[in-house]
Amino acid sequence: MPRHPASAIEVCRTPFRGAEAVRHGLITRARLSGPRWRRLLPDVYLRADALLDHLTWCQAALLITPPGTVLGFRSALGLYCPTLRPGVDDPVHLITPGRARLRSHTRLNVHEMALIPAETTTCGGFPVTTPTRTAFDLARDSNLVEAVVGVDALLASRRTTKSAIAPYATLGVPGSRRAARVLDLSNPGSESPMETRTRILLVLGGLPRPVVQYEVYHDGLFIARLDLAYPERRLGLEYDGEQHRDRQTFRNDAVRANLLSLAAWTVLRFTADDVLRHPARMVAQVRALLSTARP
Predict the structure, then answer these.
(1) Domain contains 196
(2) C-alpha angle 279/92/8, rounded to 5°?
(3) Do both 37 and 93 map to the same domain?
């Protein structure tokens, strides 16, 4: 740790090693044990009033890991796609070379892997696996829906492509077969995690794959772009997030719904409650309309 004025540690709002701060005379052990500081990890401290989020935990974790350690899996995903950043209570995913020799801690999820230099980079000042390597590691997740959510987000960010990820799935490492399935289900056109969850739940429920971001035209004029659609049945599916509660958005949605109805389209609208709590009901409703809707 570089030398600072004695007051510097008092205003520091990022994690630091306690032993180094004491050794450099920046603080005493007695003060470090006081209420102004919180102990995050062994010998890692943070001001009690400083912001504590997943990125702060990542900073703290990297202070006690061996050289060559990088962030991976969902911690890396959160850097590339902030909307999917893990919460403050989620563990930090670390990839260490060889045996980490890290003391077990509920805040750390340590993966021992041999990565080549081309599989690591930096993002936001953090050492991380590349988007392509991150996507492959996420694709091996046992939770298929969330695995596709992560891969879709990386594809939509244009940081990687399916063709770049695909060779990893042929290496025969644990989870490769699962990764191949996730890649088959992934789609770079998905515009939000909830759209992805809706689409994958429909497929896992035995329904045909819907078209993503389908544009509807009537009499040669553009009417709407649907989150998901079964064009041959003129059936559209929309995920309504919190932004649809805005007054102007509500008005626009009403006009759009009328135009779609005049064009003989049926549109089902789903919310987080449908997708996360009642997926079977959602699938049943779509199945019912697919069996009765006519072109």
Answers:
(1) no
(2) 135
(3) no
CA 196 to chain centre: 11
pLDDT of residue 1: 44
75 and 34 within one domain: no
Q: What is the pTM of this model?
A: 0.90
Q: Is residue 193 domain-resident? A: no
The domain boundary, picked from 129, 148, 178, lies at 129
Task: Give the number of domains in the chain.
Answer: 4
- Which residues are within 8 A (CB) of 272 and not within 5 positions of it... i.e. 6 or more apart? 194, 241
**Cα torsion 139, 141, 142, 147: sign:** negative
Q: What range does the domain containing 168 cover? A: 136-188
CA angle at 94 for the pair 93 and 95, rounded to the nearest 5°: 130
Gyration radius from the chain CA atoms: 24
| Distance between CA atoms of residues 97 and 101, nearest Å | 11
* Per-residue pLDDT tens digits for 46-79: 999 999 999 999 999 999 999 999 999 999 999 9
CA distance 13 to 15: 7
Helices 193-204/144-156 angle, 10° precision:
140
Q: Where are the alpha helices (DSSP H) in 122-274?
A: 131-139, 144-156, 162-165, 176-185, 193-204, 247-262, 272
Is the residue at 2 inside a domain?
Answer: no
Q: Which of 164, 188, 212 is the last residue of a domain?
A: 188
Looking at residue 6, its pLDDT comes to 44
- 152 in any annotated domain: yes
The list of the chain residues with pLDDT below 70 reads 1-7, 99-101, 104, 242-250, 293-295
Distance CA 189, CA 203 (A): 16
Show the DSSP H helices in 122-192 as ranges: 131-139, 144-156, 162-165, 176-185
**Predicted local confidence at residue 2, as pLDDT:** 46
